[in-house]
Design a protein that fits this description.
- The protein has about 1000 residues and is α+β, with helices and mostly antiparallel strands.
- The protein has 39 helices and 22 strands.
- The chain has an eight-stranded mixed sheet with strand order 5-8-3-2-4-9-10-11.
- Strand 9, helix 5 and strand 10 form a beta-alpha-beta unit.
- The radius of gyration is 37 Å and the shape is globular.
- The two termini are about 30 Å apart.
């Protein structure tokens, strides 16, 4: 380790850097040419790796700072690192840019504030800790993330700290440091402290990317607009876009041509126009889309509303059929549908989002204008075409809904009653409607109008009813007429309790007299005075009108008529039928296979992709239902990532056990594919019904891995996957081939073994007894070995001893990764003084970008705990450290205070196999002689050396101290002095 330090390495003084002056480098505002394919991919991977490894520094550029970037002169700039766990809400500035591998003058644990730096305050005297180098900051962030999300020891101890006097301070007890209830600290759902770097390479020439956080859903078009504003203002060429996910620490790098499309902004702004009920909001759609990588979001939006070029002619035919219907339009449109044209879909046409149903509705309304109302609406010609579209699942988009919303605005805002009936039957109730929207709908012969009028009025109070009566008698309403429609509305309002009292009539008279004299004709020979008299007479004689007397009967009849009409339409009946055609692009996007890495196999990269695709987001069958669950923390409540990873581990050690006991052996290809099959077998679980989940998962398994493994092997393991539930479904396995039966045994054992994630019985594993909860037969153990089990210790076979020890190890692993109820005599967490937060850890497995490594770390830590205990090293929870024999001079203890620093010092023999790791806690005698010898040597080493305390954050005083330097040298830390030169011209 090499730490750079000069006489005063961190003092923020003017003479700590040398200013040089010269000509500012020229920049161009012309767009750069796109990088060639290989060069772009090299740049993409370099930026992604920098972002994910803590080497990307970011800074918000605010309007007041633009000038300093343009003139290139000023003090060193302060940046933050893009780190997992940082608060995405802090990035609220106009633009955020990034530089790679920053050249740092100072590195702080958290933001010290820029004003003291500009006032030449000494860096070492600030209220925040100063780190020795950039790598220390990245390592500290990893520690914070691990301690916040994965720590199983409680309370949270530090591991000591080296002082300037060369002595180590004792590990300090900080029980609430990572507690989510303490503001400003780090926890699994919160944010890390905001570090700050003061860098010398923060000018325009150093900017490598435009930076956004992807935790917060945003329109891609808005991001691109801000990015281009930044590039244009600063005179930068087109920059790559880095989308960083704060909660996982993963990054995606995209380019403009991968995201942008002709109508992207209009499409994004139109996504909330499909569901007027508001059940599915634009925020819900965007949040669900945000579960996809950004480039897939853009692709889905682009392809979801653009008609394919090879279908353009068919779409033009369909558009002409609905805009100008004829006698044979239904037959022609049906033929187009049968040829594969999705006539129900929404699409972008002439700069607007629309559908064939929209176009039909608009064309018919325009044709039946105000002058044609004396004629009968041609419902017989129109209805068959409308029925065909509705039956297909076609819906209204913004244009269609606006036509209904604008009803009653003027005499021309009119929807024929017969057409309105169809709309209410298909899409009602219309909760956005008001009585004004129904002004032009006669209530005497329009069931849709009657039902909607009744629904609206039932929600009114007295004041609202009186106000509606005033509006019904207003000039704006009266000029639309006709009298019979006005009369039906007034009689219906009278039924609900509206009264033309003195206040109402005075308001009406006052309003009319502003435009008319008393003797002026309003409509139908009514003057102002005669109209008022007519209203009063209608009120007094309302009981004599059959329409008023039988209003409730009219409502009941209209409701029945609409129900009958709706049934005749044969509408799609699933829950999201009203928005499914518009949002089908999302279902299609979530249906696509994952993009697996080149080296497909049982490795971190492949498993991460599978978990992200099938476990960390809803399947295509649940996309619609997930719209209002966008803040759901886990998508597979009972089959989470931690379950899948433990099941994979079960399969791996079980295959090793079968070979060790010479029961069965597997070839290398099988050993690589079977663990993936264990992960895949729950891919569709909780998305579809349990009866078809395994079959759907098997389809995904074969589809995704085709070309990477032999087809015959894929088919056989897929058949085993489909057959997993045969034992519960009453189907026999004897028709399967011998190889398929062995694959089935591995799958069943691996998955059913993890049923202990719910409960571990006192008599576990109970191989020689009859267990009440843990069903040993479900493990599908091979015969005749399974028939030799006994509860007598001296009569157990080698196979049973190996199996029981490993099963106990699996139960121990569940205790630290899931924390179920453990009823065994010696509870694992009690033995080692652990208090894991199972809920938090399960959630972390649904987020981490290193799922395999983290699960293996838990397995290895269980081995380390056993080794430490054998060496007399305890789990220390004493703040005074009386029992762990802490030596502040030597800087060692004989206690484990945390997993991150202390436990990691215990070394596991490289030759120790997975099966041996699972068995070590409960029967070390089963391990190979070589492994036993290596473990014994490590125990002796630990007895001799103990656990070394941590040097902690090294301050300037400690680095310069003669007392501390020998300790640092013994720890492998070399302190050197180095002068940093800063150029003020960037």
């Amino acid at each position: 380790m090499n730490l750079n330090c000069d006489m005063n390495p961190f003092a923020c003084l003017r003479d700590c850097y040398q200013r040089t002056f010269g000509t500012q480098p020229e920049t161009t505002t012309e767009p750069a040419k796109p990088l060639p394919g290989p060069s772009r991919e090299v740049e993409r991977q370099a930026l992604r790796q920098a972002a994910e490894s803590g080497r990307l520094a970011i800074r918000q550029i605010k309007p007041a700072e633009v000038a300093s970037y343009l003139d290139g002169i000023g003090t060193p700039e302060s940046f933050s690192l893009a780190l997992q766990g940082m608060n995405p809400g802090n990035l609220t500035g106009r633009w955020t840019v990034g530089i790679v591998d920053p050249d740092c003058l100072y590195v702080y644990k958290q933001n010290p504030g820029t004003w003291p730096l500009k006032q030449d305050a000494a860096a070492e005297n600030l209220d925040v800790k100063l780190l020795s180098d950039l790598q220390s900051l990245a390592e500290k962030d990893k520690e914070i993330q691990y301690r916040a999300g994965w720590e199983v020891y409680d309370p949270s101890f530090t591991s000591g700290h080296l002082g300037a006097d060369g002595r180590f301070s004792l590990p300090k007890l900080k029980p609430h440091k990572y507690d989510s209830h303490k503001p400003g600290t780090v926890f699994y759902g919160g944010s890390v402290p905001s570090p700050q770097l003061v860098v010398t390479n923060g000018g325009k020439a150093d900017i490598k990317c435009f930076f956004v956080v992807s935790d917060i859903p945003r329109n891609i078009s808005d991001i691109l607009q801000k990015k281009r504003e930044c590039e244009q203002t600063l005179g930068l060429p087109p920059l790559p876009l880095v989308a960083f996910h704060c909660s996982t620490g993963s990054a995606e790098v995209c380019y403009d041509d991968e995201l942008d499309s002709e109508h992207l902004k209009r499409i994004e702004s139109s996504l909330d126009c499909f569901d007027p009920s508001g059940r599915i909001s634009l925020a819900s759609i965007m949040s669900t889309m945000n579960l996809l990588p950004m480039h897939l979001q853009a692709e889905a939006l682009r392809s979801g509303f653009t008609t394919p070029s090879d279908e353009q002619h068919q779409w033009q035919q369909a558009i002409e059929l609905v805009r100008n219907p004829g006698p044979d339009s239904v037959q022609k449109l049906l033929a187009l549908q049968e040829s594969g044209l999705p006539i129900d879909r929404c699409f972008f046409h002439e700069g607007k989002m629309t559908s064939l149903l929209d176009m039909l509705l608009i064309s018919e309304v325009n044709r039946y204008n105000v002058h044609d109302r004396v004629t009968e609406f041609r419902v017989d010609e129109f209805a068959p075409l409308l029925r065909l579209l509705l039956k297909s699942g076609a819906i209204l988009t913004e244009q269609g809904w606006n036509l209904i919303r604008q009803m009653g605005g003027c005499a021309q805002s009119y929807v024929p009653p017969d057409l309105f009936n169809y709309m209410v039957a298909a899409f009602g109730p219309f909760k956005f409607l008001t009585l004004q929207n129904l002004w032009n709908i006669p209530l005497t012969n329009c069931p849709g109008g009657i039902v909607e009028f009744d629904r609206i009025c039932r929600g009114f109070n007295d004041q609202q009813r009186q106000q509606c009566l005033k509006e019904e008698l207003s000039r704006k309403r009266l000029i639309q007429g006709p009298t019979d429609t006005i009369e039906s509305h007034l009689l219906a309002l009278f039924h609900y309790g509206a009264v033309p009292n003195e206040d109402v009539l005075d308001t009406v008279k006052s309003g009319l007299k502003r435009y008319y004299r008393d003797d002026t004709t309003l409509f139908d020979d009514f003057s102002v005075a005669s109209f008022i008299e007519w209203v009063e007479r209608l009120w007094k004689k309302r009981q004599t009108y059959t329409f008023h007397q039988n209003w409730l009967a009219h409502v009941e009849k209209a409701t029945l008529q609409l129900k009958t009409l709706k049934q005749s339409l044969e509408l799609p009946v699933h829950r999201f039928a009203s928005v499914a055609p518009a949002l089908q692009f999302m279902v299609d996007a979530f249906s696509k296979p994952p993009v697996l890495p080149d080296n497909v196999g049982d490795n971190e990269g492949t498993i991460l992709k599978v978990l992200q695709h099938y476990y960390r987001r809803p399947g295509p069958e649940r996309v619609m239902a997930s719209m209002n669950k966008v803040f759901q923390k886990t998508w597979k409540e009972h089959h989470s990532c931690s379950h899948a990873l433990r099941a994979r581990n079960n399969g791996l050690w079980y295959m090793e056990l079968l070979e060790r006991c010479q029961v069965h052996s597997f070839n290398p290809v099988e050993k690589s594919l079977l663990p993936l099959a264990i992960i895949y077998q729950d891919a569709a679980t909780e998305d579809v019904d349990q009866s078809v989940a395994k079959a759907r998962s098997a389809d995904y398994f074969k589809r995704d891995l085709a070309g990477h493994f032999p087809e015959r092997l894929l088919n056989e393991i897929a058949l085993a996957m489909v057959s997993m539930e045969n034992d519960t479904g009453g189907k026999a396995d004897h028709n399967l081939t011998a190889s398929v039966r062995w694959y089935l045994r591995i799958l069943r054992f691996a998955v059913h073994m993890d049923v202990i994630r719910y409960f571990v019985e006192p008599e576990f594993p109970g191989l020689g007894t009859q267990s009440e909860f843990f069903n040993v037969s479900a493990l599908h153990l091979p015969h005749p070995w399974a028939g030799d089990f006994t509860s007598e210790p001296d009569h157990k076979t080698e196979f049973q001893r190996h199996l029981e020890a490993a099963m106990h190890g699996a139960a121990d692993l569940v205790q630290v990764t899931g924390s179920p109820m453990d009823r065994r005599k010696n509870r694992y967490t009690n033995v080692y003084g652990l208090k894991p937060d199972g809920k938090k850890i399960r959630l972390q497995f649904d987020r981490t970008t290193e799922p395999v490594e983290i699960m293996d770390r838990f397995i290895n830590d269980n081995v380390r705990r056993k080794l430490a205990r054998e060496a007399g090293i305890i789990a220390c929870s004493d703040p005074h450290h009386q029992n762990c024999r802490a030596d502040q001079i030597k800087g060692i203890t004989y206690g484990i205070h945390n997993s991150w620093y202390d436990l990691r010092q215990v070394r596991i023999p490289a030759e120790m196999t997975r099966l041996e790791k699972m068995q070590y806690e409960h029967d070390p005698s089963l391990l190979s002689p070589a492994t036993q010898q290596a473990l014994a040597e490590e125990v002796q080493r630990l007895k001799s050396t103990g656990i070394r305390m941590n040097t902690g954050t090294l301050t300037r005083e400690t680095l310069a101290s003669k007392d501390a330097q020998p300790v640092l040298q013994e720890r492998g830390v070399t302190v050197v002095r180095e002068q940093h030169v800063y150029s003020a011209i960037r």
